[in-house]
Design goal:
- The chain folds into four domains: 6-208, Glycosidases (TIM Barrel); 220-359, Immunoglobulin-like (Sandwich); 363-543, no CATH class; 552-668, no CATH class.
- Helix content is 47%, strand content 14%.
- The chain has 26 helices and 17 strands.
- It is elongated.
């Protein structure tokens, strides 16, 4: 025995003392199992005097004295597990009650087993080896199936204190019973890949966190009370802790629906010397929470991945309300406690979710924090308004002559301070009426734009007046509405939507008064989740999700680089500096679909040309709407932008669409 760290006692439930007397020294008058031994019969008192202790008790005591580091594992079926660990002191015992009672859905009985153990000595729970099959029993899939019941009981097995034990072929889903006498399998079975993958997804991650479940110091079992005030014995609910880590497990071992509350734990023994008292704890205490109305508890469901938030005070006073379907299991992990404050309104998050789960509570909090700027932005950027502007663009084109290349656009008002002549020009001071409904639409947009600018100022802590920014955007919108057919932005709602997405974002950074408003504008697009609103809008206009996301990437890149493109077109060496700036920007790289292949970096021809076409498009709008540019300078700026784009397209073709060659040609 000294050669092994673990010793397993096979069929230990056949208690040596009792069966030794029954077979070899039967009590007088019993007849005995072996007739020839009747003459050697002994009374119970005589036998007890000759063999006062159970053999296994003597073994445990002697091993404890002579080999204290040896672990003794007993096979003790027939629901004798408690006797072996309580009375005989075995270190570990196979817990057949776990398999049999949960399989047969004797849930009240098995909950009583746990409760009785907790009231006697919680440490005993650590000694149970829980299993769902063994070589002497039918296989796990034969007893529990392969569905939710199997995985629910398996979850209990790996999250209860003690030692979980998987049977041969259990994970693979083998149905053949593999007895100890088998030398090889008789059936040609193939591992069930679906079953294995579900184990990998649901069970194995829990096994990696066994430290959280293995101990009993903070293990608590809860009663599940229905709204009618009855305890549903079919629900197993318990919590455990390991330092700052916490877990809460709930499993409904019945094919039915149920709902109710868990609040107070079952009684458990606390020993102080020779004294033993029974105590109970609330769920809030069991999870180590703060009893305060300002604190909230956040946790994640292992199976769904959803996060939940509850008031810590409510978990103390009312507990946790849960709804469970048939054989449904929930394992709540990653508990953390937060305090609701003015700049982090967790109480508002909890009120809005009203018990529902969400993929990310941090995102839910951020959504509430950003509402002051997301709401006004959504009023401007939405499919309904964009569709109205698309229709207004058609009516405006039909009613008014298009702007000439050198003609400035006036701010939007009704009537518009620009005139139409047969040659497309304008006379200063001549006033024309806008088509029906367009003026009212533009007036509404002006009000919404002012609200957005005020919201941006508050969110960014800026003090600069947004009047000039609003006027700039209104002038640019006037240009867009009067552009001729075939102008940038296309003649469909999605093309115009892309242009409007740029229009309502590119100038907003100027209200900060800082030196790089374009970079700030793009930062707000991301940080304030405006890009998500843009994707949603473009999808509602008809783009599929991937294309809508690519258009928004284009919008963000235009916001960041549109103004710099105009400057680069007018500066000596500006092409090289512009290209260097683009290639240093991950987003522009995605826009032009830069990719590595066989050690070289390449880019996509159509995407490159589209990028330059959009840069020229926004340059034309900005130039046409810039009141500081006289016609000659406006033509000069636009010509320089178109020339730079043409040179970039030509250089790309000459480079064979390889980035290093493109850089060499542009910077030469």
């Amino acid at each position: 025995m000294r050669q092994f760290p673990i010793i397993r006692f096979d069929a230990a439930m056949t208690l040596t003392k009792r069966h030794y007397q029954r077979l070899w020294f039967p009590e007088p008058g019993t007849g005995g199992a072996i007739p020839s031994r009747a003459e050697h019969g002994m009374t119970k008192a005589e036998f007890d005097a000759a063999m006062p202790n159970e053999f296994w008790r003597d073994v445990v005591d002697r091993v404890g004295a002579e080999m204290p580091d040896t672990l003794l594992l007993a096979e003790a079926f027939w629901l004798m597990e408690g006797y072996f660990v309580r009375t005989l002191g075995m270190h570990r015992v196979y817990n057949s009650a776990f398999m049999n009672m949960l399989r047969d859905e004797e849930n009240a009985n098995y909950r009583s087993v746990i409760k009785n153990t907790l009231e006697f000595d919680p440490q005993i729970l650590k000694r149970y080896v829980n299993f769902m099959n063994n070589p002497d029993e039918r296989t796990a899939v034969d007893q529990f199936g392969k569905g939710d019941k199997y995985f629910g009981v398996c979850t209990l097995m790996v999250t209860l204190p003690g030692l979980p034990m998987f049977g041969h072929g259990q994970i693979e889903g083998f149905a053949e019973r593999y007895g100890m006498e088998f030398r090889r399998a008789s059936w040609d079975e193939t591992p069930d890949r679906w079953l294995i993958e579900r184990h990998e997804r649901e069970i194995f991650p829990l096994l990696h966190r066994r430290r959280l479940f293995a101990e009993v110091r903070d293990f608590l079992l809860y009663d599940f009370f229905t709204p009618e005030g009855h305890v549903n014995e079919d629900v197993f609910a318990y919590s455990n802790r390991d330092g700052s880590e916490r877990a809460l497990v709930l499993y409904h071992n019945r094919y039915a629906r149920t709902a109710g509350w868990i609040r107070t734990s079952a009684a458990y023994a606390v020993k102080a010397g020779s004294e033993k008292t029974l105590r109970q704890r609330s769920l809030g205490e069991g999870l180590g929470l703060t009893r305060s109305p300002a604190h909230f508890c956040i946790f994640r469901d292992h199976f769904s991945g959803l996060e939940y938030i509850r008031s810590s005070l409510e978990l103390f006073e009312r507990g946790l309300y849960v709804e469970l379907g048939g054989f449904q299991c929930q394992v709540f992990l990653d508990f953390r406690e937060v305090s609701s404050e003015r700049d982090r309104p967790w109480a508002e998050v909890a009120a809005e979710l009203a018990g529902r789960g969400t993929p990310s509570l941090d995102e839910a909090l951020l959504e509430i924090q950003l509402r002051p700027v997301v709401g006004p932005f959504r009023e401007l950027v939405n499919a309904s308004l964009f569709q109205s502007l698309f229709e207004a663009r058609g009516r405006t084109r039909a009613a008014l002559p298009p702007l000439r290349r050198a003609e400035p656009a006036d701010p939007l008002s009704e009537p518009v301070a620009s005139a139409g002549r047969g040659d497309g020009g304008s006379r200063a001071g001549e006033r024309v009426e806008l088509p029906d409904g367009v003026g009212a639409l533009l007036g509404d947009i002006g009000h919404k734009l002012q609200r957005l600018l005020e919201a941006v100022k508050l969110q960014a802590g800026a003090s600069r007046d947004g009047t000039a920014v609003a006027a700039e955007v209104e002038r640019e919108l006037a240009v867009i509405l009067r552009q001729p057919d075939g102008a940038p932005g296309g003649d469909d709602a999605t093309g115009l939507g892309t242009l409007l997405g740029w229009l309502f974002t590119h100038a907003l950074g100027k209200v900060s008064g800082e030196g790089q408003p374009e970079g700030l504008g793009r930062e707000w697009l991301r940080a304030w989740r405006w890009n998500r609103v843009l994707v949603e809008t473009l999808r509602e206009l008809g783009l599929e999700a991937g294309e809508a996301a690519r258009r928004v990437e284009m919008i963000e890149a235009l916001v960041a680089h549109g103004r710099a493109f105009r400057c680069a077109a007018l500066e000596e060496g500006g092409a090289g500096r512009a290209l260097e700036s683009w290639l240093a920007d991950d987003q522009v790289q995605r826009v032009v679909r830069a990719n590595e292949y066989e050690g070289s970096w390449w880019f996509h021809r159509e995407s490159w040309e589209s990028w330059l076409e959009w840069l020229v498009a926004v340059a034309e709008i900005e130039c046409a709407a810039d009141p500081s540019l006289e016609p000659r300078l406006r033509d000069l700026h636009l010509g320089a932008c178109r020339d730079l784009a043409a040179r970039m397209i030509e250089a790309a073709a000459e480079s064979g669409y390889r980035l290093d060659r493109l850089v060499a040609r542009v910077t030469a």
